[in-house]
Amino acid sequence: MEEPKRTEISEVGEFGLIDLLSQKVEHYHQSSVKGIGDDAAVLAATDLQRVVTTDLLLEGIHFDLRYMPLQHLGYKAVAVNVSDVAAMNAIPTQITVSIGLSNRFSVEAVEALYEGIRAACTNYKVDLIGGDTTASAAGLVLSITAIGEVASDKVALRNGARKGDIICVTGDLGAAYIGLQVLEREKAVYLTDPEAKPEISKYKYIVQRQLRPEARMDIVHELRERQVVPTSMIDVSDGLASELLHLARNSGVGLQVYEENLPIDKMTYDTAVEFNVDPVTCVMNGGEDYELLFTIRQEDYEKVKSHPDIHFIGYATDLAGQAHLITKGGTVVPLKAQGFNHFKE
Ligand code: ADP
Ligand code: MG
Question: Is residue 296 part of a domain?
C-alpha cells in the first residue's frame, strides 16, 4: 500500500503555507475590499449593522481527530460560526481563520482542513479574508471569527420574546448527541481491536449531524421572504433546555414546550433506545444540533405555519425566567440548563 504524501510544514515555511491556503479563495461580497495578503483586511462600511462572533476549538476538548476527518472539522468550524450569525437573523459576509499547528500536522493535513473551510465558505457565501498561523506545542488549535450584516430593525436578540409568542424550532433535535455516542462506541472498539471494522453505515444521518452539521441560513432567508422577524432567537448548541432558559431569562418571560411537539428523527429515537438513553433527554441536553430556536408573534403564525421544517413547540407565558416541559402524560417538568432528567417524578 502506498503511503499518503507528507510534506513537512517546515519545507514550505509559514509564508509558503499561507500562500497555498489563500490560492483558491473566492470573494462574494463587495464589502470585502481587501482580503488575505496585507497587515489587515479592509471592509467597506454599509448602512447595515454588523454582527461579530468567534469560536475557539481545541483538539482533545472540542474535537477528536480519531473520528473527525480534518475536512469535516474545517466545514463544521465555519458552520458553527455561521450558525451564531444566523441566530442574530443576520447574513454572514466574512470570516477569519486562525490555526495553531503542532509538527504532527503536514501541509496535506492543513490543506484538507482548508478544503472543508472553503467548501463551507462557498456554501454559505462568506469571504475568507484573513487569519493567523502559528506553531503549537501539542495538537491543533482552530479559531474562527465570523462577521455578518443585518438591518437594525431585523436583528433578533435573546431578549425580545413576549407573553403569548409562539416558540419555534427548526429541523430535528438530539441527533448530533446520539451520533457522537455511536462514534465514541466505535472508537472504543477500535482502540481495543484495530482490526475491527467501524459499524457506522447504518447510523449515517446521526453521525453526519455530529461530524458535518449545517447552519440554518435557509431559515434566515425564508423568514425574510415571509416578512417575519423573530421576537427572539438563539441557535441550539447546548441542548434545547439550556437555550429555552437563555431566551426565558433574557426576555423575562416563561417558555412552555410540549413533549409531543418536539421534533425527533426516527433514527435518533431508535438509536437513543439502543443506547439506553431517553430520546427526550437527547433533545433537551444533547447539544450541537445547530438548529434555530426562536419566538414569533401570534399574528405571524399564518406566514410560517406551512413551512415543512419549522416546528411549533409551545408558547411564552408570564412565568419570568422559567422554562417548562409538558409531558405527553400532562406532567409539568421544570427545565434546568443541564441535568434534565426525564420525568423523575
Ligand atoms: P502578520 O505578520 O501581519 O500577522 P501574517 O504573515 O500572519 O501577517 O499574515 C499574512 C496574511 O495572511 C494576512 O492577510 C493574514 O490575514 C493572512 N493569514 C495568515 N494566516 C492565515 C490563515 N491561517 N488563514 C487565512 N489567512 C491567513
Ligand atoms: Mg499573523
Answer: yes
Please say which residue of 118, 150, 182 terminates a domain. Answer: 150
If you measure from the C-alpha of residue 180 to the centroid of ligand 2, how many angstroms do you get, rounded to a whole number? 34
Identify the residue whose C-alpha is closest to ligand 1 atom 5.
132
Residue 67 CA to residue 79 CA, distance in Å, equals 18
Q: Ligand 1: does its nearest atom lie under 6 Å from the Cβ of 236?
A: no
Which atom of ligand 1 is found nearest the CA of 97?
A: 24
- Alpha-carbon dihedral 9, 11, 16, 20, rounded to 10 degrees: -60
Q: Does one domain contain both 119 and 211?
A: no
Lowest mean pLDDT among 79-93, 155-169, 177-191: 177-191
Q: Mean pLDDT, to the nearest integer, of 236-250?
A: 96
**Buried b or exposed e, range 23-50, using 16+ CB within 10 angstroms:** eebebebebbeebbeeeebebeeeebee
Q: What is the band of 220 on the pLDDT scale with cuts at 50, 70, 90?
A: very high
Residue 35 Cα to ligand 1 midpoint, Å, equals: 10
Compute the average pLDDT of residues 236-243. Answer: 95
The candidate with the shortest Cα–Cα distance to 171, out of 60, 265, 50, is 265
Domains identified in the chain, total number: 2
**38, 132, 140: residue to mutate for ligand 1 pocket, most atoms within 8 A of CB:** 132
Q: Which of 27, 34, 36, 95 gets mutated to test ligand 1 (max ligand atoms within 8 A of its CB)?
A: 36
| Model pTM above 0.85 | yes
* Single-letter code of the amino acid located at 69: P
**CATH code where residue 328 lies:** 3.90.650.10
Report residue 39 as a C-alpha cell: 497587515
Residues 145 and 179 both lie in one domain = no
pLDDT at 2: 66
- Determine which residue's CA is closest to atom 8 belonging to ligand 1: 39
> Residue 42 is part of which domain span?
9-150
Q: What is the pLDDT of residue 218?
A: 98
- Ligand 1 pocket, 130 CB below 6 A? yes
In a domain, 138, yes or no: yes
Q: Report the separation in Å between the CA atom of 22 and the middle of ligand 2, taken as the mean of its atom positions.
A: 14
Q: What is the mean pLDDT of residues 84-94?
A: 98
